[in-house]
Each structure stands twice: as C-alpha cells, then as structure tokens.
Design goal:
Blueprint (H helix, E strand, L loop, with lengths): L2 H15 L4 H4 L16 H5 L5 H11 L6 H19 L1 H13 L7 H7 L6 H13 L4 H14 L4 H11 L5 H12 L12 H7 L37 E5 L17 E5 L2 H6 L4 H22 L3 E3 L2 H11 L3 E5 L5 H7 L7 E4 L2 H6 L7 H5 L2 H8 L1
Parallel strand pairs: 1-2, 1-4, 2-3, 4-5
Helix pairs in contact: 1-4, 5-11, 8-9, 9-11, 10-11
The chain binds flavin-adenine dinucleotide.
C-alpha cells in the first residue's frame, strides 16, 4: 500500500470512529499503544503526503464545521506557524547560530543524561525513550517534555528543539522551533508553559509518584527583537526547465499532472540532513517517501533523475542546458538553507501553492487573529 493510501485510510478510520470526540479527548496521552484520540497524521502532513486541505475536506465531508472546529483549528496551527516563521526568517537563522554556539554544551553531562533518558525525572525519561523509538510524542507530552527540559533540567531550549527536530517523523522547522519558543516564554513574551505533576498525572496514562518539577519559575528572555519581512513568492519562468520535486511537498505533482517542464527529477535531501545528524528513523522514513515520489515521476513523466547534492545539480544543468530550476516552495528549514546558498549560482524558482500564498500573510500576530481568517480561507479553498 502506498503511503498516500495509508494516510487516507488512517484519516478515514479516524474520522469515522474518533473525530467526533476529538475536542474532549485530544489532551489525553493514553500511551504509545493507544493513539486513537488524535489523528496521528502529522508525519504525513509534514511531508504533504496528504495535504492540509485534503484532511480538512475529508473530515468536513462527514461532520458539520462546528462538530470538528477544534480539529480544523489544530490543522491550521501548522499553517499559522509556517506563515509566522516565513514572515520572520531571522528567528530560524538566530536559532541555527545559537546551535553552533552551543555545540560544546553537548558534552555537558546533564544534556547527555537528558537525551539518553537517564535523568532523575521518570516521566521525562519515558518520553525521551518513546521519541527515539517511535519518532512521535503526543502534543501534551511534547509540552511537558519541553517545559521540564527548560525549567527543571535548566537546559538551553535550542538543544531541546534540535533533539526533537532530528527524532520526530513529523519534525517541522516552524511548528517545532516556535512551539519550543512558546513553552520557553519567548513566543508570547513573558508567558511560559510550566508542566506540573498534577497536570501530567491527570492527562498521562502512566501515573508518576514523587515528581519533583520546578513549578514556579520565570520565563526565558531574549534581547533580539525579530521584525517582520514581506514574503517573496517567485513568478514561474519555465523555459529549458528542470522541475525538482522534494518530500516536503510530496503530493505537489499529483495536482499538476500536466507536463509543464522540460525535465523532471527528485531532490533527495537525506545527505544534507544526515550531515546535520538527523536520526536514522527519520532518514529511513524520508527515504521511503522519496522512493514513492520517484515511482510517481517515473510513471507520470518517464523521469528517473535523483539529485542529492550541489555537484549533482550542476552536472545536470550543464548536460541538459538547464536555464531554470523549479521546486515546490521550501519554507524555513535545513532543506531551504541548503538550496538558498545555491541561488547566486543557479536560477532557482520556488513555486508556492495558492493555499500557502493566501494563508501565510495572515500570520502577522497571534493565532487568535489568524483564527478569524479561517472562514475566509475555507470559503476560498473548499
Ligand atoms: C514542543 C513541541 C514541538 C512540536 N514539534 C512539532 C513538529 O516538529 N511538527 C509538527 O507537525 N508538530 C509539532 N508540534 C505540534 C503537535 O504536537 C503535533 O502536530 C501533534 O502532536 C501531532 O499529532 P497528531 O497528528 O495526532 O495531531 P492532531 O491533534 O490530530 O492534529 C491534526 C494535525 O494538525 C497539526 N497540528 C496539531 N497541533 C498542532 C500544533 N500545536 N502545532 C502545529 N501543528 C499542529 C498537525 O499537522 C496534526 O497532524 C509540537 C508541539 C510542541 C509542544
């Protein structure tokens, strides 16, 4: 079964059997063998094996908007965070700069114990273990984990975000970095998220006695103020073109089956991510998606080209006399950083979906402002 079919089957099963209870049940973490109260679609959505509108349309075909409003809003959190970071790419850049400065800190015993599930906080160790084994954590566990990391274990939030991004199958630069910033109190300035033993024991399946958490501490502060910049969306020029699909918008070509470009290929970012120390689980998952994308471009366009680095790209450009390289829009993240540094040498055009172009500019302030636009967005796209 293809991953896309698997995603749709999963979505249908969730919609038919569990979605109507999502808003009341979603905050419970019933444990890794009982994950039906949330959709678990994130690993597919991050790679757009299935996209946001497909998920919303399918759910909405079974229930009224009001019954599933909470679920739809959660899907829009993803879009909101992505738009927010696109409008402030310096936040991602500053995070990467901080990680370079923190490289030495990785030798710290407290950090090593934390990523190896050997702290004195039992629930934290359970989640660290679960994350490494499964590539997933429930949203509430992610909040507790991040809060304990920052406020009880007193570790730099950037290293926690890095640990998550490299182990989550749904790892997404925007949702992850900004959620960690939110827990720390940097995103909504001065408002942090403090995990409490009461809350953990109410919502987690496993009960933990004697949790000693720092439940009374101040948020983190930062000196830099991040200003908004307009998002630039490229216009398409497709003479002598090479279209490079990638796995952060895996179903892009399913919506654009007509042959528009002269050449087609796949850009496989796994070597780039491997150099950044992404976990084997995540790289294997991405490799599986890449294989499916390759099958698809083979059958739709007779293409079998896989590029993995800049040398591969320059070679093809020379051999095929390519003038324009076109890719589905890459939002902030390691993949975009890699491609962006090639942009002075090669003309690379990012094709943004209408949905992203329409939604991202709404992420100027907090989610409540964005939420007011959801009806407008759905009227336009459903
Ligand atoms: C510290 C921290 C780090 C996180 N890192 C990521 C990440 O790297 N990638 C990621 O996709 N999500 C991240 N999240 C958000 C959220 O935890 C996951 O999207 C969610 O747990 C995925 O499970 P699900 O598919 O069952 O979600 P559901 O509750 O079924 O929601 C449906 C979909 O909506 C989206 N969504 C739901 N909640 C959020 C949210 N708070 N923010 C953004 N999108 C959301 C996801 O695409 C999800 O698949 C993070 C949250 C925290 C607190």
């Amino acid at each position: 079964m293809s991953m896309r079919t698997e995603a749709f089957e999963h979505l249908n099963n969730f919609s038919e059997n569990y979605l109507s209870k999502y808003s009341s049940d979603r905050n419970f973490d019933f444990g890794k063998d009982n994950r039906t109260n949330t959709s678990c679609l994130s690993k597919y959505l991050t790679h757009r094996v299935i996209d946001e509108l497909e998920v919303i349309k399918s759910a909405h075909s079974k229930y009224s908007y009001l019954t599933i409003e909470k679920f739809i809003q959660e899907v829009f959190w993803r879009t909101y965070w992505k738009g927010w970071l696109e409008l402030r790419p310096r936040v991602w850049k500053a995070y990467r700069e901080d990680l370079v400065k923190l490289e030495e800190y990785k030798k710290n015993i407290n950090y090593q114990n934390s990523i190896n599930a050997k702290t004195t906080v039992e629930c934290f160790n359970d989640w660290a273990q679960e994350l490494k084994e499964t590539g997933y954590l429930h949203n509430h566990a992610r909040m507790w984990f991040a809060s304990i990391w920052i406020f009880t274990l007193k570790l730099p939030w950037q290293l926690g975000a890095d640990f998550f991004l490299k182990h989550l199958l749904d790892g997404d630069a925007a949702s992850n970095t900004l959620s960690w910033r939110w827990v720390a109190g940097l995103q909504t300035k001065g408002k942090h998220y403090l995990a409490t033993s009461w809350n953990i024991n109410k919502f987690s399946a496993k009960k933990y006695n004697n949790l000693k958490l720092n439940e009374n501490t101040s948020p983190i502060f930062e000196s830099e103020n991040f200003t908004q910049v307009p998002i630039h969306f490229d216009n398409l020029v497709n003479e002598n073109s090479l279209f490079l699909i990638h796995n952060l918008d895996s179903c892009y070509l399913l919506k654009h089956k007509q042959k528009t470009f002269n050449n087609y290929g796949l850009f496989d970012f796994n070597d780039v991510l491997d150099k950044e120390n992404y976990s084997k689980n995540v790289l294997d998952f991405k490799a599986k998606i890449n294989l499916e994308i390759l099958e698809q471009i083979k059958s739709d366009f007779g293409a079998n080209m896989i590029l993995k680095n800049s040398d591969d790209l320059f070679k093809v450009i020379k051999e095929k006399k390519i003038e324009h390289v076109i890719m589905p829009y890459l939002t902030c993240g390691y993949e975009n950083d890699f491609i962006s540094q090639l942009k002075d040498k090669v003309k690379i055009c990012y094709l943004a979906r209408d949905y992203d172009q329409f939604c991202f500019p709404f992420s100027t302030k907090g989610f409540f402002g964005f939420k007011d636009q959801i009806h407008k967005i759905l009227t336009k796209f459903l």
